[in-house]
Amino acid sequence: MQREVFDYEQLVGVTQIIASGMMIDLSAIDEVGLKDESLFIDGVDHEWCWRARSMGLSIARAKQVEMIHRLGDSRSKFIGVTYKVGAPIRLYYQFRNILLLSRRPYVPTYWKARCLFFMPIRFFLNSVMQTNKRKRFTYMVRGIWDGLLGRTGAYNKHWPH
Predict the structure, then answer these.
(1) Ranked by mean pLDDT, which of 26-30, 80-84, 96-100 comes out on top?
(2) Last residue in a domain, options 62, 85, 111
(3) Residue 132 lies in a domain
(4) Are 79 and 51 members of one domain?
(5) DSSP code of residue 39
(6) What pLDDT shows up at residue 4?
(7) Are 114 and 88 contained in the same domain?
(8) What is the chain's mean pLDDT, rounded?
(9) SUPFAM superfamilies this protein is in (predicted)?
(10) Do residues 54 and 87 both lie within one domain?
């Protein structure tokens, strides 16, 4: 869910944008810094946008540019609600990074509340309603564990195969 912040000619201000559609003014890098690679994959783009906004910069999407991008490998339905289903390894990063980002003061409260509220529901859906239940369960538990401990970086840094 994307909340619009402002509407100006060919731009619409937003709170965040995903990297596949992101263009960054290089002078912003000097002020905001680089993307947080310690998150590794999920939430990296949003975190940078939130950090930039906390420093007074604006994030915008172009009205005339259409990008077709599908998040997740597939879609599933549960009691009439459609949700995205990704690879089991992505669950590790999603769960871990929700816990890591929820501690940062510049991350929007609505995002923290929404993600933390839906975390148990996503845990249930991914460990009971999907294929590879045990693998999904393991990745989610490890993500939660590492998130609580504040561990960052790639999965195999903490859980070698």
Answers:
(1) 96-100
(2) 62
(3) yes
(4) no
(5) G
(6) 59
(7) yes
(8) 88
(9) Nucleotide-diphospho-sugar transferases (SSF53448)
(10) no
8 shares its domain with 46: yes
How many Cα atoms occupy the beta-carbon half-sphere of 22 within 13 Å? 19
Count of structural domains, the chain: 2
* Same domain assignment for residues 84 and 110: yes
Q: Is 34 exposed, middle or buried (0-12, 13-18, 19+ CB in 10 A)?
A: exposed
Q: How many percent of the chain have pLDDT more than 90? A: 63
pLDDT tens-digit profile of 59-91?
988 888 877 755 556 777 777 777 778 899 999
- Predicted local confidence at residue 161, as pLDDT: 74
Task: List the structure tokens of 134.
Answer: 């045990």
The residue whose two tokens read 């409260």 is: 109
Domain limits for position 80? 74-158
Count the residues in the chain.
161
User: Are residues 97 and 133 located together in one domain of the fold?
Assistant: yes
Residues 6+ apart with CB under 8 A from 49: 15, 16, 17, 59
SS (H, E, C) 49-98: HHHHHHCCCCEEEECCCCCCCCCCCEEEEECCEEEEECCHHHHHHHHHHH
